[in-house]
Amino acid sequence: MTDYHNPVLLYSAVEFLINPRIEEHVIFDGTLGGGGYSELICEKISATSKLISVDKDKNALEYSKNRLKNWENKISLTYGNFANVKNIVECFGFSNITGIVLDLGLSSYQLNFEDGFSYMKNTELDMRADKNSSLKAADILNGYSEKELNEVFKNYGEINRAERLSKAICASRNKMKIDSTGNFISIIKNEYGFKSNVPVKFLSKIFQALRIEVNNELGDLMKVLEEAFNILVTGGRIVVISYHSLEDRIVKNFFRKYYYKTVISGKSLNILTKKVIKPEYTEVRQNPRARSAKLRAGEVMVI
After folding, report:
1. Which one-letter DSSP state was computed for residue 115?
2. Residue 16, pLDDT above cutoff 70
3. Of 16, 74, 170, 176, which shows the fewest CB atoms inside 10 Å?
């Protein structure tokens, strides 16, 4: 496969990530995906620098292992959750890093070939990025209480009157198990009286909410930002590309928390992106999935 994933804002992300004032880097790519960021990073860093690339999706690791085989002297690929950045880095013999990049979007492969991520085809309701984890989307829809479902859709999908959807799910599962995306979409369609297709924006929010809950996406994001800040060297950089308001709000609030006017434990964060970076029209035209991307970057300082 040649189009496993099209990395969004690739050149901007890597330009912000690599501090030219640092000669020897230890960089952490927490979302390896199809290897696009990792490949460009390897091209840009020195021969003695190191890149640690992580993904919890083993399909991504298998694909990128072949793509990046010419960079074996610089890169180490490993299965894992980027939220555990400190432990992963220590496993490779390092106590600090000079940069971390996180592309929080789904890969094209996940949307096209892995069960549950896309509402465009009828598949099992899985949605696990890490197939070793136990919780599936079907478990949520069939096992969560009405109150718990309401919290998921309200907090992670920002669905208006989320209780209506939750009640419809509970009523439907009492008759038949909800076990496929097609089955689930039918419930939504019937409840809201859509005569043709359910509006894409509405479906996207619902599927987003389930995916966040299945993969603990927001909790992992908060954890990785804090851990990364603690192990970044002076001049080390954080680059995050987010795709919806919940992610971006966490990143923005994190940057504000450690902004250089508020020194914490002797370290602070200089915000490199005073205005959020968005893809240009040409990139969105070539890759429509990039349209909602927002890039934020910061550099660790000691005052």
Report:
1. T
2. yes
3. 176
